[in-house]
């Protein structure tokens, strides 16, 4: 399968971004829409992956000026194609363009070992978000390791 990952603005691409995030986070993970879609969407840098042949949206992610990477989602039928890797690489590129020194993610607690493989370290205490235990993990931008990734709300 071939796909294209592009940087998009919320104002223009919101229906496509929402489509993917609703499929993954609202319907699969059962996260309430009121939590999934927040004011940060209007200020974030978003990326959108679309299937080249059908032009259907298949993945998304965002990064905030604070360095927070979140809302990484890939529709179930495309997860084996490693779309998430390209989404994250695009987000890392944006982080470099923003001259960020550090990025961070609030990952599911069971994924901390997974993110350690990419040079992320735990920071702070475990907390609950949308009924799920989470852990903040940080990584200096110059120490990012590219490998396989995990969906992250």
TrEMBL record:
GO terms for molecular function: acyltransferase activity, transferring groups other than amino-acyl groups. Gene3D superfamilies: 3.40.630.30. Pfam families: Acetyltransf_5. The keyword Translocase does not apply. InterPro entries: Acyl_CoA_acyltransferase, GNAT_dom. Keywords: Transferase. Residues 3-153 form the N-acetyltransferase domain. This is GNAT family N-acetyltransferase. It comes from Cognaticolwellia beringensis.
